[in-house]
Amino acid sequence: MPVTATRRGKPMTTQVTNIRRMIITVMVTTTPTAIITMNMAVMIISTAIPMLMSVDKRSRRCAARATAGPGKDIAAGSNALPNAEAVSLYRLLTWLSPSFPVGAFSYSSGIEWAVESGDITDASSLQAWLDAMLTIGSGFCDGVFLAQTHRAASGGEEAALNRIAELACAFAPSRERHLETTAQGKAFIDIARAAWSSPSLDRLVGCCSSPIPYPVAVGVVSAAHRLPLAPTLHAFLHAVISNWISAATRLVPLGQTDAQHVLARLEPAVVETANRILEASLEELGSATFRADLASLRHEAQYTRLFRS
């Protein structure tokens, strides 16, 4: 049997041999009944020790994989994700989860006014509204800012990174939308720096002289941690759409099934918009969702409000 684990500095196979010798010595001086008991003990030990050694080997392999870090893959089964991909997926699921504390639940991006004015009344009208916001409105623009930020940060273009952050702030069409994007951006940066500290992240944040909008913050953090751009962008757009639908679910109101129908039907638009964003430049920024911009302006003076935007 190969030596695969140790205990107190001795190979497990050596310990098994020693135990067997002790049992045989005792058997020479014991009664027949005791000998039967000893034989059973030998059989149990002979079966259990190899099992424990196998478990110990798997445990050490898992521990090595967990501490290897991004880019240092450990050999595993054919169905296992490479370590770098697993780390990237874990962080994206965490950072762009509805439970990540950036305060996204308190903003509706003007949807609250759209519901009160009668522009959004059911799942169908909500889908049409969100499709426009995503493809020709703030969704597309924020995606471009994220992609350009990620590329500038990854390439060490500090001056370009600062210009992108300033431009993203200037694109907010109202005071409330400016508050929404900069407050979430600050919270995202602060939590990422506290829980996933990185010298490169601190350096990139220091390059920005203006408040950091939310899409820029996601681009900076993902680049600092070397997360690929494409999955980061898709996860970001999914998070934005999900937050809009969550706000509408409470405002219209919608049932949970209707909300999931809207999310499912917007899937092709998210995929197409993400692909278009990856090919776009800053010169292609633009929005044609005038009604949504008007909603964010009028929300500031709305008499009763549940949301901050």
How would you describe this protein?
With 309 residues, the chain is mostly helical. The chain folds into two domains: 61 residues, no CATH class; 214 residues, Urease accessory protein UreF (Orthogonal Bundle), CATH 1.10.4190. Helix content is 68%, strand content 1%. It has a two-stranded antiparallel sheet with strand order 1-2. The protein starts with 5 loop residues before the first strand and ends in an 11-residue tail after the last helix.
Features:
disordered N terminus, two-stranded antiparallel ribbon, 68% helix, 2 strands, mainly alpha, 14 helices, single chain, 309 residues, Urease accessory protein UreF, 2 domains
Number of self-contained structural domains: 2
Question: Helix count, per DSSP?
Answer: 14
Tell me the radius of gyration.
29 Å
- In total, the number of strands is 2
Q: In percent, how helical is the residue content?
A: 55-70%
Please state the second-level CATH architecture of the largest domain.
Answer: Orthogonal Bundle
CATH superfamily of the largest domain: Urease accessory protein UreF
| Secondary-structure element pattern, one letter each | EEHHHHHHHHHHHHHH
Largest pleated sheet: 2 strands, antiparallel
Report the principal-axis shape: globular
